[in-house]
Amino acid sequence: MIDNIFQNIINKYLSKKNKKNYYLYFSIFKFLTRSEFVLSFKNYKFYASFDKKSLSRWMLKNLEPWDNVSVEKIIYYIKKYNGSFIDCGCNFGAYSIPIAKKFGDQNIYAFDASKKAIQKLKQNIDLNKIKNINYFNIGIGDKNTEAYFNEDIDNLKNDGSFRFTQNSNNEKINIHKLDDVFKNKKISLKENIIIKLDLEGFDFLALKGLSNTIKKSKVIIFIEISKMLLENSENFSNEFDLFIKNNKLNIYDLNLKSKNVNEIIVSLNARDKNKETIGDYIISNHKLL
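and the corresponding structure tokens:
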């Protein structure tokens, strides 16, 4: 009964610009139920819950899609360059689901080291009756190996914080270079490739595992820059700068303002200790300006 009432409230306010009254309902119902609710955005849907450690809670509170600006930019580049989309750190499918619905005639490839994240993705795939998302429960890095992976939600900020760790009490997960993954017969890519990297500090390692692909294909990479990158490279600033120069890559912010490695490092060092990320950037061997 309570769940049906709140689902009806959601349906009523999803299409409204003024959601002031909805926030009142949200503040009340969050104490009354722990169920999942369906959010219908345009032509796709997501499950969302009041769970404080679920990224979907943000969507439920704001009645807006997760990272919609970045998703729309990726859709733009897929259209412009007729590109394939690769979602690394797919989580519940915030990127893969709307993009798969937009481009129903092409395969979307989604990767996540977390079994829990893949399960959430599968639920949203079924909810949307999607057939063109190919998902892989593996880690992405700069070499083919394995490492311990922590997805114990009790010890993490939220379900977007699952990450590799040195703690041997966690389960080992296989890690693969994207260069080698793309050789898989199950994966068929176009000449242009649009890639999203959101890997909790493994982003630069994943980028290094793309060296051959960058030489052979035109790539546009959406990458999250965070302080965690510093932890996974002995000398990140120099390594990153050298990688960008050697591969003749361009760096942009989401407004397509050209950036250099030094600017990014300065921003990282100036970031408040309690805030890990400085946002998403675009790295490409295209000139996007």
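(Above: one complete record from the training split.) The chain is about 35% helix and 25% strand.
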